[in-house]
Design a protein that fits this description.
Layout: E1 5-9, E2 15-21, E3 24-32, H1 35-47, H2 51-60, H3 66-76, H4 78-87, H5 102-117, H6 124-139, H7 150-164, H8 182-196
């Protein structure tokens, strides 16, 4: 597919890399003085199938740092932005720490996350499933809330597989060591949105 990019002269002999949007430049990504860097970047732009994939390659090649990567992906991937908005509601991202007072802490958190995802997910039922799945996953560990409905458990299973690598046969023995990531939450949101449409 390829990503449309353009180089523009910048300060101190450096070139600025911009994403193209139809006929005009719309997002400045970075600046570089190295022709070798430029070749690597152009190769990734030709190979990438989406802007988020291209941004990930720029991050993995150390052209942009993690904060810049996350900020740029939020602009170009609504589901990633939704995941970040939900994670911003959590007091911590560690999975497996018990919530002492679920009625006092968990349910308001689920409501907050449901509101956070509202600008990104139209379907109110999907929003409820997504918030319930992430909230109960964060507060417990798989299997502790078996009374949750089928769709919520399905969303939690997707989140679990992405976090633990279970689909690739990788086992994590210490659930409390897991950290919720935007990428894993994004996969769970995409699953719910796809199954609800």
């Amino acid at each position: 597919m390829g990503i449309s990019i353009a180089w523009q002269p910048g300060a101190e002999g450096r070139n600025e890399l911009w994403l193209n949007n139809t006929a005009h430049l719309h997002t400045r990504l970075l600046s570089s003085a190295s022709s070798e860097d430029r070749e690597v970047i152009e190769r990734w732009a030709e190979q990438a199938e989406s802007v988020p994939e291209f941004l990930e390659m720029l991050h993995l090649e150390a052209f942009i740092d993690l904060d810049r990567y996350q900020a740029l992906v939020r602009q170009h991937d609504p589901l990633y932005a939704a995941a970040c908005a939900m994670l911003d509601c959590l007091p911590h991202r560690r999975v497996g720490q018990h919530v002492e007072d679920p009625a006092g802490q968990l349910y308001p958190l689920i409501e907050c996350m449901g509101q956070a995802v509202e600008p990104f997910v139209e379907d109110s039922i999907a929003r409820a499933i997504i918030a319930d799945a992430l909230g109960t996953y964060w507060a417990s560990w798989m299997g502790l809330y078996e009374h949750l409905d089928h769709e919520v458990n399905g969303a939690r299973q997707v989140l679990n597989e992405v976090l633990t690598g279970a689909s690739a046969g990788i086992l994590i023995l210490s659930p409390g060591d897991l950290m919720l990531t935007p990428e894993a939450v994004r996969a769970m949101i995409a699953h719910v949105v796809a199954t609800r449409s």
